[in-house]
Amino acid sequence: MDSISIAISKGRIGKEASTVFKKIGLGDSIDINSRKLIFKDEKNKINYIYVKPLDVVTYVQNGVADLGVVGKDIILEKDSDVYEIYDLGFGKCKFAVAGKKNKHTYSKDKLLKVATSYPNITKKYFDKKQQKIKIIKLNGSVELAPLVGLSDVIVDLVETGNTLKANGLYIIEEMFDISARLICNRISYRFKYDRIFNLVEKLKELKH
Ligand SMILES: Nc1ncnc2c1ncn2[C@@H]1O[C@H](COP(=O)(O)OP(=O)(O)OP(=O)(O)O)[C@@H](O)[C@H]1O
Ligand SMILES: O=P(O)(O)OC[C@H]1O[C@H](OP(=O)(O)OP(=O)(O)O)[C@H](O)[C@@H]1O
């Protein structure tokens, strides 16, 4: 049996991924509460590596990991050459443009200041609308930006809407839905197809 390595995003996605792998009998070695970064499952010949979301794609792209579990937001933001092979169905949220008013408050003849942690997704979205923007890249707490006058609007993930509500912000436009995905290195997909296929089958059974 080929051994495979799987990169898992730390944080929200990692927590759910660990539960899912345990449910299909392949995750006993994963302990997200430890400080370990590699979890070896000798019996099933799986090595899990536990890394930051954006780095999951890097490890898979470079073939250090055959597979990765990461949010669709990260895949879209980090234009890469990996296969997206399965929608895991957890980590559901959506991208939205939000601001202090719940209606379109911007126009094409005026530069729009947009705060976000996702500059590539934001640029692509507004380019399509032919809206000129200035991107203000932040690393978190993006909702603060319009409140203190750093930006006109934000582009960010919304799940329950609690963060927007708590800060007096409204959704202006919903952009698209996000969930966790299984990604695969292109070469691994060819050479370790059977193992990868089996894993996906097990994940599918869990969903039904
Ligand atoms: N409400 C949510 N807010 C943000 N991300 C969510 C939410 N629900 C699900 N997700 C998914 O979880 C991922 C982010 O997880 P988490 O917030 O733990 O990481 P992070 O803190 O953004 O990462 P980093 O440590 O790099 O800052 C996103 O990429 C997204 O796919
Ligand atoms: O709609 P909600 O359920 O409130 O979730 C959305 C919020 O969660 C995320 O932030 P996170 O908790 O990751 O903190 P951050 O701002 O530091 O990224 C995201 O960036 C939103 O701020």
From TrEMBL:
NCBIfam families per the UniProt record, alphabetical: hisG (TIGR00070)
Known catalytic reactions: 1-(5-phospho-beta-D-ribosyl)-ATP + diphosphate = 5-phospho-alpha-D-ribose 1-diphosphate + ATP
Organism: Keratinibaculum paraultunense
GO molecular-function terms, A-Z: ATP binding; ATP phosphoribosyltransferase activity
Keywords carried by this UniProt record: Amino-acid biosynthesis, ATP-binding, Cytoplasm, Glycosyltransferase, Histidine biosynthesis, Nucleotide-binding, Transferase
Protein purpose: Catalyzes the condensation of ATP and 5-phosphoribose 1-diphosphate to form N'-(5'-phosphoribosyl)-ATP (PR-ATP). Has a crucial role in the pathway because the rate of histidine biosynthesis seems to be controlled primarily by regulation of HisG enzymatic activity.
Residue ranges of domain ATP phosphoribosyltransferase catalytic in the record: 53-204
Designated gene of the protein: hisG
EC number in record: 2.4.2.17
Main location class: cytoplasm
Family: Belongs to the ATP phosphoribosyltransferase family. Short subfamily.
Name of protein: ATP phosphoribosyltransferase
Coiled coil: none
Subcellular location: Cytoplasm
Entry GO terms, CC: cytoplasm
